[in-house]
Write the structure tokens for this entry.
Amino acid sequence: MKLRLYQNPHNSCLKLPRLISSVIVVLLVSVAMLSSMRTVSSQSISYVQPLLDSGFDIRVHQTLTVEIPELPLSTRTVILEVLNNWNQAQEWFIASYYPKDTDRIYHLVANSSSNSDSQIAIVYVPNTGQSWGGQTQNFGGTSTGYTQRSLIEIRNDQLYNPFGLRFLLVHELGHALGLGHNNQLSFDLMYPKQAVAPYPSTLNLYAVYLLASGKAGGSATLPETIPYIIWDPQKVPLPEFPSELVLLVSVFSAFFGRSSKRVHRLD
Ligand SMILES: [Zn+2]
């Protein structure tokens, strides 16, 4: 629009100096940005994750064995990656927000042999026109109140779509751990209607942390101190180094830093 004003020599009232015109455009853009920011901030989202009636007892099951059926290597690789993603995401979350509670992480470990002792079993079922691609049933001992075993059924046609399988399985594993459907958050892993996030969010991870702390039923509301973030494999906790090693590294880097400066001066 600004260009068109200057290209019209007959319309003298539109011949604004270039600087004034730029300022007006910047002001208009700023006003537009401010109004859109107001709109976003006024839509306060509450991050609430419903919980199922029970989760696994972390005192007994810090390691959850997951039975995987015989499958082609590519499918099996996706499943192993998803299990590993849940482990890494929990480790990152605990290291970031509850570093003293490293005992409240469920470690998902694949178990290829058919073993009735597995806590979670993944099975595939024929496509008989059911509306779901996967479903999870949790079986709990009524005397203990904890989940004893979880059965994840994947419709067999879903196994051959690695991208879809990843979204489906990460969601079903959320159910196995005790997460319910998150009907309000369409961008979250536990949204029921379609697979939208391939990795757990801080909301999902906070809820799993509460389940590991013994809470079940009701819901988990993300504390204001924890931002809503969808974890991804880049977010892996860094190992802690002993302070002596850090000191040694800083001495070396200071020495080599000076050396490289000398070389630059010679050039
Ligand atoms: Zn679901």
DSSP finds six helices and seven strands in the chain. The CA atoms of residues 248 and 254 lie 10 Å apart. The chain has a mean pLDDT of 77. The longest helix spans residues 18-42.
